[in-house]
Amino acid sequence: MTASGGAPNKKGNEVQHLVTQDTRFQIIQNILAHPESLPSLRELEFVVDKGRSTIYEHLKTLEKAGITDRFELE
């Protein structure tokens, strides 16, 4: 049940499932804790106990869901 008393929000449930997965949760915490909210993949690799390719795949999942944005430096 939602706060409005209506049917559960399917999109909200999907987002909740995405962000509560342990690795993605760690990634989001580290993005939010970063002084500029723009940690590099290398920084995330240092603080999240996973390999670069795993972190990258989780970042793509979060970006596809609209939870994060991707920024690239030239």
Summed up:
With 74 residues, the chain is mainly α.
Textual characterization of the structure:
It is a single chain. This protein is mostly helical and 74 residues long. Helix content is 58%, strand content 0%. It is globular and about 40 Å long.
Q: Uncertain segments of ≥5 residues (pLDDT<50)?
A: none
Oligomer: single chain
Please work out how many helical segments DSSP would assign.
4
User: How are helices and strands ordered from N to C?
Assistant: HHHH
Number of strands: 0
- Alpha-carbon Rg, integer: 14 Å
Strand content: under 5%
Major sheet description: none
Q: Overall 3D geometry? A: globular
Average of the residue pLDDT scores: 87
> What is the SS-derived class?
mainly alpha
Give the N-terminus to C-terminus distance in angstroms.
46 Å
Helix share, percent: 55-70%
